[in-house]
Amino acid sequence: MTDITISDEDFQKFREFFYRKTGIQFESTKRYFVDKRLVERIVETGNENFRGYFTLLRFQASGEELQQLTNLMTVNETYFFREEYQFKCLVESILPEITTRKTDHSPLRVWIMPSSSGEEAYSVAIYLLEYWAGINDWDIEIISSDIDTRILTHARKGLYSARSVQELPAKFLLRYFKRTEEGYQINEDLRQSVEFTRVNLVERADTRAYRNFDVIFCRNLLIYFDDISRKAAAETFYDALKPGGYICLGHSESMSRISSLYKVRKFPEAIVYQKPMENR
Asked: In this structure, is residue 263 part of a structural domain?
């Protein structure tokens, strides 16, 4: 049993450092969660106390330990067809509007951030295949990003528990999954249809290449950010969207409380947020 402890001062130092690096703000109510994972990494890296570990965390040139800790600290809880009404909005309202005004035939681009273990990205792919009339007429690019490298490996593998797939109709399980001893594995075609990438949303160097998206899903991430980080994230997504593009947030999140850059769009299925069209 380890006797390593994290003092109040240690917690504050770490909390401020992690916030600067990821935009995620840990409240005091998360002390047990944070301390447990810090102690785990202190022991794993052979350090004797927080001070030695924190030095490694800040100054390691490769950043490998910060990535390991970030993987431990991020919450990845999702399942297939979560908040399905937004997928319905995508196929019944958003995409028909986008394709009607699209003058070229370039691919439609969808960005999912955070990826988590891939259920959301694969849900989008399944929903398009099953319910979107334009699927045979348009190329779709689905990019799914996360700060957590471990969870991205899971997403690429596409292997899920019964709990993850419990909201899926049985016919979709038969059509798109193979039952294995470990769970349900999504088929190769669907796995190839999604590109999974590592992105830290608060690092401009990471997000600069992400441009010209028609639709962004950023659901239940901004609740972990403070007001400053939320505003910065809203601006990053604004830059990533094409004029007239849309962003979908989680059911408890509201872009109107974060940024005035977007227009509120009330579709029959959902409220989403639109980057205004360029002045013509």
From this structure: yes
Q: Strand, helix or coil at 106?
A: coil
Question: Cα(65)–Cα(24) distance, rounded to whole angstroms?
Answer: 17
Distance (Å, rounded) from C-alpha 223 to C-alpha 225?
Answer: 6
Tell me: pLDDT of 280 over 70: no
Q: For position 150, which CATH number holds?
A: 3.40.50.150
Q: Which CATH number characterizes residue 53's domain?
A: 1.10.155.10
Instruction: Could you list the beta-strand ranges (E) of the chain.
Output: 108-112, 140-146, 159-160, 177-180, 183-186, 194-198, 213-218, 241-249, 263-266, 271-274
Q: How many structural domains comprise the chain?
A: 2
Torsions phi, psi for 230 (to 5 deg): -60, -45
- Across all residues in the chain, what is the average pLDDT? 94
Q: Are residues 63 and 97 in the same domain?
A: no
Amino acid letter for position 127 = Y
Q: Lowest-pLDDT range, 65-74, 127-136, 190-199?
A: 65-74
Domain boundary among the residues 46, 73, 100 is at 73
Task: Kindly report which listed range (65-74, 129-138, 145-154) carries the lowest average pLDDT score.
Answer: 65-74
